[in-house]
User: Fold SRS domain-containing protein from Cystoisospora suis.
Amino acid sequence: MARRTLWFVACAGAATFLLSPVAHALRHQAGNGFRAKGLEKPQEVEAAVCKEDVAKEFTAFLSETKRRVSLQCAVAPHTAVPELTKGFVCPTGISNLAACKMPTGAAADANTAVSLSALMGGTAEPPVKWVESTPADAAGKKYELNLPDAPLPLLDST
Assistant:
């Protein structure tokens, strides 16, 4: 009889432990570790390639973990980001980059480029701008946009 009681108490204790929140957390922690080993590293750069005489819409989603956009143009004389390397982007609704105007002292209209620094919440240092470089593996130009390590705004300012 004493053995049965001891066996019953041991089984009840084990069942209580296995159903407890601590055991639940331990089971999930171990499961997450195994699952995390099988996951690939997320892509840190949104990349696009513009080809000669081919119009393509490209949307990049930037976040706290994905702070870089890369645009590579195959033809050297053709510039997909003409004056925008000074820290501006074209507003939504522009279908032709030639229609995008750089801001002047006059009032801005629907085709006026928007400052990236103002769009990203007013970060002044370091300024948010496109950086032009030459790709190592191909002819043409490559433009990269890096966001600073400042907190991103919850909503854009437009």
